Amino acid sequence: MQTTASIQRTAQLRPLGIGKASIEAWLNAKSKVMTNMFGMEVTRLEGLRVYGAFGLMTVGAALSGVSLLVTALCVALAGYNVYKLNVEHPEEKGGEA
């Protein structure tokens, strides 16, 4: 009984071990799903930015009749996500033949 209480107390005092470095390493790792979808190497951070841009555009379109301010904010944030993607990969230009 005493051993169980001691183990539980030790587990409560121990930090989780999730730090900025481990989160950045996870975000910068290659995403298998996005890589297979796009046919090029895509990191998890880039995938989250793409999903974020689509999500913000969807919310902006859904709220366009309710609030012009919210729509403008969603479009601006989606544009910022696309800008950040273009800054990370300036050599990859889309839409050019």
- The radius of gyration is 21 Å
Gap between N and C termini: 72 Å
Tell me the major beta sheet: none
How many alpha or pi helices? 5
Order of helices and strands: HHHHH
Please explain how this structure is put together.
- With 97 residues, the protein is an all-alpha fold.
- 69% of the residues lie in helices and 0% in strands.
- The chain has five helices and no strands.
- α4 runs antiparallel to α5 (68-88).
- It starts with a helix and ends in a 9-residue tail after the last helix.
- The relative contact order is 0.08.
- The model has no long low-confidence stretch (mean pLDDT 79).
Characteristic key phrases:
97 residues; mainly alpha; single chain; 0% strand
Secondary structure blueprint with pairings:
Layout: H1 2-13, H2 20-27, H3 32-38, H4 44-62, H5 68-88
